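quick one, 198 residues, struct below
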Amino acid sequence: MEQHPTPVTDERQTLRNLTDKQAIAEVLYRRVRASDRRDVGLALSCYHEGATEEHEGFSGSAADFITEQSLSSPTSNARVTTLWHALSNISIELTGEGATVESYYLGVVVREEDEVTMLCQIGGRYLDRFAWRDARWAIAHRTVVYDWSKVAPVGPSYWDLIGRDEATIIRGAFGPGDPLYTVFDVARGATDDGNGAN
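---
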C-alpha cells in the first residue's frame, strides 16, 4: 500500500487543526444566518469584543456596523423584503492563535425601489482575521470584497410559473417569523458552538 507523501508526525495537532477549521467555518455560517434572519444578537456573537469591519464604505467597529448600518440593523429603514447569502470556497490558514480566512459569498437582496421590486445579486469575498480568545474562535477584523453585482426587476415567481397557490408554500421570513425559529425551536441570538456564547 502506498504511503501518504506527507506522513502525519503529530496526530493530535492534525486533529486540533481540523477541529479549529470546523469551528471557524461554523462561525462563518452563523454570521450569514444572522444577516438573513435579521438576528443581531447572533451576528454580534460571531465577533470578538472590539472587532472591526470594512463593509460597503463603512470602516470601524463591527458592532456599530451590525447595529447601526447593516440591512440587519433594527434601525434600518431600507425597503428590503429578502436577504439571502450562500458561502463557498472557504480557505483557512491557521497561524497559532489566529487565522486568515477567505470565503466566497453570493448575496441576494430583494428590495422596493420607486415602487418596483428589484432583485439584486452580489458576488464577493469575506477576508476575515480570526482570533482564538476566551476559549473560542471569532472574527477580529472583516474586510468585505465586492467582485460583481447585477440588478434586475423581479419577474413572475416560480410558483406563478407552475400554477401553484403561494398560500400553500412554507415561506422564509426576514426576521423572527422564519420557520427556523418555529420548526426547530431555535432561540434568537443563540449559538450552537458549545461554549455558551450568545
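Residues 43 and 90 are 19 Å apart (CA to CA).
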